[in-house]
Amino acid sequence: MRTEVGAGARASRGPLRIALLGCGVVGSQVARLLAEQAVDLAARAGGPLEIAGIAVRRPELPRASGVDSSLFTTDPAELVTRPDVDIVVELIGGVEPARSLLLAALDAGTSVVTANKALLASDGAALHRAASANGADLYYEAAVAGAIPLLRALRESLAGDVVRRVLGIVNGTTNFILDQMDSLGSDFDAALGTAQRLGYAEADPAADVQGTDGAAKAAILAGLAFHTEVTSGDVFTEGISAITADDIASARALGFVIKLLAICERCDGGVSVRVHPAMIPRVHPLAAVHEAYNAVFVEATAAGRLMFYGAGAGGQPTASAVLGDVVAVARNRRAGLRGPEPARYAELPIVPMAEALTRYYISLDVADQPGVLAPVAEVFARRGVSIKAVRQEGRGEDASLIIVTHTARESALAGTVADLAAMPVVRAVGSVLRVEGEEGE
Ligand code: NAP
């Protein structure tokens, strides 16, 4: 469904003018492709697309070839409110000043394209309200999974279905690190170092390895999938820095691989949204996602299982998604219409992590003595956590016990782990990892 644009809209055959905020990894590729593909883009957008100005912090820096530095300005606030600007493309990142700039643009009736997951996951509702109140478009395909056309699928293609679950790898940096650990047997620090050397991880990798980047993306995905307001603060988040080479080796021995997953699912009483490392069976399609690629499963009642796969980051792939949005917004403006808005009518409650249902892998260091398994199993039984598989390896006076459970409630598992830690025969509780992928897979 489309709605008519407000009074601020210009629906002419003349050029549509773009204010580009940021000319870094993504912005420079957007500027280059707008220049190099101008003829094709004009044909698809219904008329020429012109850059009115490019906001940067340091205009003196060298930029990618094809970027016209005569368009640079260090005053983004002036640029977004110029009367001849039709579309603001925000590729600065972070919450401020991006938030104020985009609200100023939307308040003036100017449509916005952004790749800014952090901003959308914290202030998406305010941006949508401003877009709606002023008859402007707000598009952000590039904010989740880079080049992969995933948000449009959730927002438009699946608008007639009931999405039950979105499960996937949405952070390429952590997938690269875990893939290195799995394929080379390296530990976390060595794999992170390789990722940094090859440009897959930032000098400050915190947002990636601590899971906050994934949490912002999960919030955006859950909001669209379940027609509900979700912010990154609603997302249970655990990163990968505690994953050891031993965890990876144990997972391998059990036929699993460890991935950082974003999981958004309907459950009793609402929706569960979480980002954490999880073991998945090696036969699961997500196990075959290597290096820095992204892949997302969407499960819907009528459509069944859909899988989206591709480059989740990088200047050019992300610019592809940004330009797709620019063309969509340009077509809307030419037609004097707005694109469809995500419907946030459902208001499903966010279920606390303690209520989440999943399976678990637990490694314990125990005394290597006869009969040690019985009291350990008794703790699981008392907490109502059913054991699926046990592996025991002797190591001198100690033994290592690896336990995989059937589906259990997070709170029951937490109680089990606390009880285990207090047992005299348990020397240490090693790793506790969630196991995803359906039972029997
Ligand atoms: P980046 O390389 O750091 O570029 C940021 C750009 O914004 C730079 O050109 C910088 O100017 C400019 N800038 C920063 N603060 C500014 C300010 N106050 N005023 C004017 N200009 C300012 O970032 P990026 O990697 O292109 O990412 C941009 C956005 O895309 C982020 O929201 C990011 O999350 C998202 N995204 C990125 C990727 C990716 O692969 N990189 C993938 C998906 C989504 P100077 O160059 O002068 O410093």
Question: In words, what does this structure look like?
Answer:
With 441 residues, the protein is an alpha/beta fold. The protein has three domains: 3-146 and 315-338, 3-Layer(aba) Sandwich (Rossmann fold), CATH 3.40.50.720; 151-311, Dihydrodipicolinate Reductase, domain 2 (2-Layer Sandwich), CATH 3.30.360.10; 354-435, 2-Layer Sandwich (Alpha-Beta Plaits). 34% of the residues lie in helices and 27% in strands. The chain has helices spanning 27-36, 38-45, 76-80, 98-107, 117-133, 151-157, 172-184, 188-197, 206-209, 212-226, 245-253, 315-335, 373-382, 410-421, and strands at 3-4, 16-21, 49-55, 72-73, 87-90, 111-114, 138-139, 163-169, 236-237, 256-267, 270-281, 293-300, 304-311, 337-338, 357-367, 387-395, 398-405, 408-409, 426-435. The longest helix is centred in the C-terminal third of the chain and has 21 residues, at 315-335. Mean pLDDT is 94; it is low at 1-11. Residues 22-27, 55-58, 61, 76, 91-93, 97, 115-117, 142, 146, 313-314, 318 line the site of NADP nicotinamide-adenine-dinucleotide phosphate (NAP).
Characterize this entry briefly.
This protein is α/β, with parallel strands linked by helices and 441 residues long.
CATH homology superfamily of the largest domain: NAD(P)-binding Rossmann-like Domain
> What is the average of the pLDDT values?
94
Give the distance, in angstroms, between the N- and C-terminal Cα atoms. Answer: 40 Å
Label the overall shape.
elongated
The description of the largest β-sheet is: 11 strands, mixed
- List low-pLDDT spans: 1-11
* Named CATH topology of the largest domain: Rossmann fold
> Given the structure, what is the number of helices?
14
Bound small molecules, which ones? NADP nicotinamide-adenine-dinucleotide phosphate
Tell me the structural class: alpha/beta
Radius of gyration, whole Å? 24 Å
For the secondary structure, the number of strands is: 19
